[in-house]
Amino acid sequence: MERVKLPTGFGRLWTAQTVSSLGDGVTHAALPLLALTLTRDPMALAVVAAAGTLPWVLFGVLGGALVDRWDRRRTMWVADAARAVLLAIPATAAVLDVLSIALLAAVAFLLGLGGLFFDTAATAYLPDLLGRDPALLERANSRLRGAQTAASGFAGPPAGSALLALGRAVPLLADAVSFALSALLVRSLPAAPRPVPQARESLLRQARAGASYVFRNQLLLGLALRPAVGNIAFLAVETVLALFAHDRLGVGAFGFGLLLTAEAAGGLLGAGIASFLGRRLGTGTALTCTAALEGLAILGLAAAPNPYVAGLALAVCGAGMGATMVLGPSLRQAIVPAHLMGRVASTSRMLAMCAAPFGAFLGGWLAAAYDVRTPLYTSAGLLLAMTAVTATMTGNRRVEAALLAAAGETVPPSVGGVLL
Fold it and tell me: What residue spans of 307-411 are helical by DSSP H?
């Protein structure tokens, strides 16, 4: 059977997100290193790490309701254009030598706000572009995730570390250019149908409808809880990773970039084999296995005696994350009605982001109160516990029943009844 080709517009979307992800990877490595030039306080580093997640906590559901009202393509390019302009502020501050932790945290917050609108709109736009075909969505998300991982993790972090050596403003300007290019490409995408307006409904009521849809559906709730608990763990790790790499593994700025590259290499592999895992094991079982793999990998990172073992552990963790980030979103996009897609996506992301600041501060506190390895061990325990709790919520039977329901087919009561 001949595979259906992805539409031409997808190529432009893929290019836009790849370019932007490269800039994100540069900043991902440079921002914690910039913060380390200003302070060695783990709690101050936690503030910067947590700031980028706060917009999802404060405005996540409302943002999704707005995206369901707005033109999704326009929302994406305006958000990227605004983030390009924003990055000129810390770049100028770096040149004038007035950069501070407070400014880095404020910029991270505003970048996160732009990311809220862009990511939610992109998630809602993709199924419109692809006609909500599950197989196409899985292929598209695999390519998007693979390119994002390669750009933001594989190429971006070493480039960010290297660019930082040329000047503190250089990596920030590089990310600004990537956002500007992405905005131009997104603006050229084909228009998608506008969401059907909900007459006489307030924004808050629409937001509540989206949140209720997630919380009443066991499958969607399980898909949302995994990244929520995962973000506590991963932000706790990320908050202290630069410090852990420097103090315990003895690596410098360039070595830290290589560690992030190892994680990205694993993520690229995971994204590439996600569809195979889903077909071989079933999507639900595959999601459970990748979640367990992440927890075991972080446990290996915590016990790592040298940079080589740490790099291997991060690569394994990245593989689990890469596969998860293809299978989970593809499933959600295939089963959620179009008029709810923005709100469901933002509610799910908000749950994850609400947990993230707690993880950042937990990591900083555990490192300050005990040892820099303590947040890593704690994170591994959280990931493994989360895997056990959500395994039945996202099992193969639930997944199959949800796909049948979304396709408009009759679902036996004994199967479909477990969805709500």
Answer: 307-335, 341-369, 374-390, 396-406
Q: What is the pTM of this model?
A: 0.71
Burial of 96 (0-12, 13-18, 19+ CB in 10 A): exposed
354/211 Cα distance (integer angstroms): 14
Each residue of 273-332: pLDDT tens digit? 888 898 889 888 999 999 999 999 999 999 898 999 999 999 999 999 989 988 988 888
Q: Helices in 131-217 by DSSP H: which ranges?
A: 134-149, 156-166, 170-187, 203-215
pLDDT tens per residue across span 61-80: 888 888 888 888 899 999 99
User: Residue 405: how many CB atoms within 10 A of its CB?
Assistant: 15
Alpha helices in 52-100 (DSSP H): 54-67, 72-86, 88-95
Question: Mean of the pLDDT values across residues 346-362?
Answer: 80
Q: How far apart are CA 233 and CA 356, in angstroms?
A: 8
Amino acid at 321: M
> What domains are there in the chain, each with its CATH number?
8-191+202-416 (1.20.1250.20)
What b/e readout covers 277-305, taking b as 16+ CB neighbours within 10 angstroms? Answer: bbeeebbbbbbbbbbbbbbbbbbbbbebe
H/E stretch holding 200 reads none
Q: b/e for 23-54, b at 16 or more Cβ within 10 A?
A: bbbbbbbbbbbbbbebeeebebbbbbbbbbbb
Q: What is the pLDDT of residues 243-267, one digit of tens each?
A: 888 888 888 777 887 887 788 788 8
Contact 291, 320 (CB under 8 A): yes
Burial of 408 (0-12, 13-18, 19+ CB in 10 A): exposed
